[in-house]
Description:
Chain B is mainly alpha-helical.
Amino acid sequence: MSHDSTLTGSEQNLTIFKGMIHSARLRRIGLALGASSAMFLSGCASNAPQDTWQPKGENAEKINTLQWMVFPLAGIVGVLVFSLIGYILWRFRDKGQAIPHQSHGNPTIEITLTIIPALILSVVGVFTFRGIFQLAQTNDTQMVINVTGQQWWWEYDYPAQVVNGVEIAQPIITSGQLVIPTGTKVLLRETSRDVIHSYWIPALNGKKDAVPGRINLLRIQANKPGIFAGQCSEFCGLSHANMRMEAVALSPEDFATWIANQQRNAESPAQATLADEGETVFLNQCIRCHQVNGLKKADGTAAIAAPDENVYAGAAPNLTHLMSRNTFAGAAFDLLTDGCRKNVWSAAPEEFGAVYLKGVIADCLNQTNIRRWLRNAPAMKPMYANPVKLEASDGKYRGMPNLGLSESDIDKLVAYLSTLK
Amino acid sequence: MAIIERPTPADTISLRMPVTPAQSMGIVRRPVTSTGWKSWVFTVDHKKIGIMYGVFAMFFFIVGGVEALLIRLQLAAPDGKILSADLYNQMFTMHATTMIFLFAMPMAAAFANYFLPLQLGARDVAFPRLNALGLWLLVAGGLILNSSWFLGGAADGGWFMYSPNSGPVFSPSNGVDFWTIGVQIAGFGSLVSSINLIVTILNMRAPGMTLMKMPVFCWMIMVVQFLLVFSLPVITVALVLLTFQRSFGATFFDVAQGADPLLWQHLFWIFGHPEVYVLILPAFGIISEVLPTFSRKPLFGYPFVVFSGASIGLVGFGVWSHHMFATGLGPISVAAFSIATMAIAIPTGVKIFNWTLTMWGGKIWYSTAMKFAIGLIVLFTIGGLSGVTHAVAPSDTQQTDTYYIVAHFHYVLVGGMVFGLFSGFYYWWPKVFGKMLNEKLGGWNFWLMVIGMNMTFGPMHILGLQGQPRRMYVWTEARAGEGFFNFGFWNRVASLGSFILAIGILIFLINVVHTARKGKPAPLDPWDARTLEWITTSPPKEHNFDRIPVVHHLDEFFHRKYQENTTTGEMVQIATGAQLVQAEEDNADAHIHLPSPSYWPIAIAVGVGTLGLGVVYGVPIMIVGVLIILGSAFGFVLEPSVADDIDYDPPMSGGQDTKELAPLG
Amino acid sequence: MFTTGSKYYFGVAGLGSLGAVLYMVLVNPCDVGVLALLGIAIAMSLVGGVAQFTDDFDADTVSEAVTASASAPAKSMWPLLLALGGVLLLVGMTAKPIIFILGIVVIFAAGVEWALQSWAERASTDSAFNRFVRERALSSLELPLLAGGIVATIAVAFSRIMLAVSPQSGAILFIMIATAVLVVGFLVALKTNLKKSTIAATCVLGAVVLLVSGGIAGFSGNREELVVAAAEDHYSHKECEAASSEHFDKNSNNAVSMKSGISATIRVKDGKLTAQLIGIDTPVQVVTLARSNLTTILFRNLDDAQYRLVANLGTQKVGDTGVEEEIVDCTQMTGKDQTQALILKISKPSASSGPYTLTVPGLEGQEIAVVVP
C-alpha cells in the first residue's frame, strides 16, 4: 500500500487501516466472521457490474474506505459476542447444578459494557462525519450535467460550458448512457419530472434521489475509461426494475470526439432508400414525442416533437444520436447484439474509447430487441400505455404505447433509426 | 357476567342486585352468554380478546408468508414470469403491510392483552370495552386492506407509499385508497388499545408492585404503547392528507402545485422509525421473561434493561431521517442523524450484553422457548451489526434500497421479532391453553426456522452488496455478474431458504393442531417460572386471580417458591407452584365484579369500516357509516358496565345465560 | 307573580312583539308579516292574561300541592327556546335565510332536549338518578357540540381581529394574548385553592372581551391592504414593463428562502446582466433548462436602480383560434441587494418557437439565452 504524500493525516490513517485489513492475517480472521463475512467476501466478486465494493472513482473510493472500516469492525464485534454466547451456552448448560445465586447484576460490568460500544461508535462517528462532508463537497467541480428522471428512463443534458478546454457550444441532450470524461469532477444536478427516482452508479458514488421540484447534487468521477452499470434504486412505479442507467467514461480526447458528434444535427437519408421511407414513418408516428434534431417535415420546416401533449411527464428520449448509445428504453434493452455488447464491456481501458465510439454498427444492431419494441413496447416493458386506462392522467401516456405498426413500417423504421449515429 | 358474590352467613345483602331504574332505559338485552360464538364476538375479557388477536395475527402471518413465497418464487430465476410487474408491486406492498400492521402489531397486542393484566396481578385491563373496540377496529382495517385484492387490485406503492408515486395519477387503482383507509382504521385501533394499556400499567398493578418491580415484559409493552401514542397521530395526519389528495382533490403532495414530496417521507418516517421499535420491543420483553426462567436467574441488570428499552424508545424518535440519507437532506442533517443512529446502537447493545450475562452462571434448560430466545439474541445481533454499517451514512448511500437493507431488517424482524414471538408461544402456550406444545416438534420447528431464515436472508447481504436493488419485479442476467457472488446462485439459495422457513412455520402449525388433539395437560408451573401469571390456574379463570396477590419482589412467584438460605446462600425450595395456586384458591376474594360483554365495540368497528368504504365508494355509504357509529357510540356511552339481572335467563329456566353465582357460604 | 302556565304565553307574546320589531327594522315596516307577528303577540298575551287570571296551575288544597310538588317537573327553559325557534323560523322565512336556518337549529336542539328531559323525568322516582340518566344521554351530544361552538366562535372572533389590525400589531397582539393565556393558566395551575367562581369569572371576562372585540373588528372590516389587494386582483395580474406597476409591484415580496432546486441565479451588477450556474465558476450568457420541469430561477439585483427579470418564452396558440400569443413571465420590481424567484415550467423546446430569452427591462441589448433542449 503506497502512502500518497498528498493525503492528509487522517486520510493516511484510514489508508493504513485499510492496508491492515488487506494484510493476510486480518483477512483470514475476517473470513471466519459468520454471516458478516459474506458481505466482506463480496469484495472478491469478479465482473459484478453493480458491486458496491469495487470503486472506480474518487467518491466511491471514499465510501469504500469507510466500508472497510465499519464492516470488519462489525464482524469482529460479532465474533466476540458470539464466542461469548457459545461459551456460556456450553459452560452453563444444566448439568444438575443447584439453582444459582439470584444475583441481579453488576453495575461495573454494565457500565463498562455500555462505555465500550459508545467509544467504538464515537470513533466510527468521527470518520463518518468527515466522510459525509468530504462527499458533499462541490466547489471544485469541473463539469456540470443535468440529470432528469422520468418514468422509466433518465435524461441527461449537458449545459453549454467548457470542459477540459473543449467547448460545449450548444447544449447536448441524451438519455440512457451518461458519458463523462475521465479524471474530471462531474457534478450531476438531479431532478425528476414525475415521481422520486434515485440515481446510482455504485462504481462511481452512492445513490442520490431525484426528487421532483428539487435539485439534488451528486458528484462523480471516473479514474479510467470504462462502462459502469447502475439502476434506479427508489421505487418509482410499474417498471422500476426496468429503469437502468450506464455511465461511460471516456478519455478527454475521446470525450471531445463524442461531444463533436453529439453537436451534429441528424442528416436525412438518401432519397428513395428504405431509410428514407423510414423517415416518413418517423414523421407520421414517432415525431409526436421523439425529437430528432435537424429533421425536417415534407414542407421543409423543422419537425418539432410535442411530448407534453402526449406524455404525462412531458418528455420522451431525444433520438438524434440513438445509435451512439448502446441501449434504449431506459437502458433496459441492448441495441447491441450479445457479442458486441461483451466487446464493449470487456474492453481494456486503453481501447475502450475506440470501441465505444464506434457506436452501434450495422453488424452489431440487435434486430430482435428493437423490432420487438417497435411491434409492442408495453409488452416488453410494463408501462401505463393502455389508452383505455389513462383516465387519471387525462389520456396521457406514461411510457410508450403500442403503435400498431405494420411489419413493413417496422423494417423502414429500423433502417431509418440505424442512420441516427 | 363474571360476578362472584360469596356472602358470608353474616352477610345479609340480597343475592340479586337491587332493581335499578336502568331497565327503563330501553337498551337491548345484553349478550351475557358464556359459551358459543357470541361469548367471543361480544366479549370484553382481555384473555379472549388476546386469543382473538393471536388468531387474527396468525392468519395474516400465513397470508403475508404466502405473499413472501410468491415474491421469492418470482425472484428465484432471472426474468421471473410468475407475477406480472403490477402484481409483484402489489405483492411486496401487501407483504410488508400485512406483516407489520396485521401480524406483528396484533401478535404483540395478543401477548400484551393476555399477559399484561396477569403479570400485573390485575383482573382485567382498565377499559375492557375499549380493548374490544381496539381489536375489532384492527379487524375492520385488516379486512378493508385485504378486500382490495378482490376489488380492483391491492395497493402498489410500497408500504412506505412515497408520494408522489402514491398520488391519483401514478397509482390510479383503488388499491392505495383501501390501503390508506385500512391502515388508518387499524392505527385507530392500536391507538385505542395503547391508551388502554398505559392506563392499565400505571393504575392496575397489584399492591406492592412498584414500577421497578414490574416484569420487563410489562415495561417493554409500556414503552411500546407510548411510542404508539406519539407516533400514530403522525402517520394518521399523513394518511388523512393522502386520502384527501386522492379522494377529494387536495394537493398536499402535488409538486406541480408547489408541494414538496419529502413532506410525506418525513411524516412517514417520524412514525415509521418508532414503529420499528414498536415491532421489536415486545419480543425483547418476551425473551426478558424467558431467559431468566430457563437460566434460573434474575435478569442481569434489570434497571439497565428497562432504561435501555426506554431510551431506545426515546432516541427512536430522533433518527427517522436515516431512512432518507439519499434524498438530499444536506450534509449537516445527514451527519446529525448518522450520529443519532449510532447512538441508538448503544442501548441495544446493552440489552444484548445483559441477556447474555443473564445466562452466565445460570443453569440453562434448553427448552424450545429458550432456543428461540437464544436464536433471537444471535440473529438480532447480526441484524444490529449490519444496522451499524448503514448508520455510516456514506456507506448507507451504497446500501440503501438494496437487498442488503432487506437482509438487515429481516434479521431484525424475523430473527428478532418473530423468534421472540415464537419463544413466547412455547413459553406461554401451557398457560393459555392448559396443554404443553410438543417439544420434539418444537425442536424441528426451531432448527428449520433457523436454517430457513439464514438461508433466505443471509444471501441477501451478498445480493445487496453486489448491487441488487429492492422492489424490482425481475432481475436480469446482464447485471448478475459472474463468479461465486453472482445474483443467480444466491437468489436461488434465498428462494430455497424461504421454503425451508415456511416448512418450519408449518411445523409449528402442525404442533398446534397436534397439541389441541393429543397434547398432554400442562402442570400448573411447567417451567418453574418467576412471574405472577403462573400463580393462577392454566388457563386462568375469567377473573384471573382468586385473590389479588401482594408483591414484595421482582419475580414474586419465584420468591414465593424459593428462599435463600442465609448461611450457605443456596436457594431452597419452600413451596411448589401448585401449592401456591391452591393457597390462593383457598383464600379467594369474596366479591369479584367484572364488566359484562357488549355489542357496541364491534358495532362501532362495523360503522368505522363502512365509513372507510364510503371514502372509496361514495358519500351515501359514508352517511350510513356515520349513522352506525353515532348509534353505537350512544349505546356504548349509555350502557352500564355490568349487565342488569333482566339480561340473564331466569335461574330456573334452563337457559344458557344464567348468572354465575357462588353457593352460599 | 306569573303562574306557571301563563309564562309560556307571555313569553311567546313578548317574542312575537320582538319579532315584529325586528321584522320592521330588517325587512319592511309595512308588510303583512308585521301584522301576523303582532297578531300572534296580541293573541298570546290575551291567552296568558286569562291563564293568569284563573290561577291555572296553582293548587287549591294542601294535598294537591303536596302531590304536585312530589312529581313537579323540574324548571325547564326548552319551551321558551322552542318558541324562540318558532319566531326565528317565521322571521327567517320572510327576512333572511340564515335566520330561518338558525330557527330550525334552535327548534331541533330544544325539541331534542325537551323530549329527552321529559323521558328522563319519567325514568324513575329517584330525581337524582333521573338527572344522571339525562346527563348520561345528553352530555355526549351537548358537550362536543358546545365545545365545537365555542371553538368556532373563538376562531371566528379571533380571525376577524387578526384580519382587521395591521400585520405588525397583529403579531404583537398574538404574542400578548398567548402570553396572557399562558400566565393565567400557570396561575390557575399553581394556586390550587383558587375558587371555581374566580376561574369562571376570568374565563367569562376573556370570552366577553374576545367576543366584543371580534364583533367590533367584524363590523369595521378587513385592513385596507387586503381590501385593496382583493379589489385590484394584483396577485394574478402581472405587468412586465420597465416602469414600476401600480398594482403588481405593490407589497413586493423579497423574502426568498429557497436553497434547493435553484437552476440558475441571474444577477445585475454595474448594469451588466450575467447568469451563474451551480458548479460552473465563470458567469455564462446561455442557460440550459430541462423541459417540462418546474424550474426556479433567482434574480438578484446588486445595482441601485430597480429592475425586474422577464422571461420571454416564445409563443403559444390561444385555444383553437390559431392566434399566437407571447408567453411572458416576470418577477416583481427588485431593489438593491434584493432577490426574487421566478418559477417556470417550459413544455416546448426552444427550437419550436424560440429563441427564449431572459431580459431585464431598462438594460437594453443584454439578454441571457435560454436553451430548452
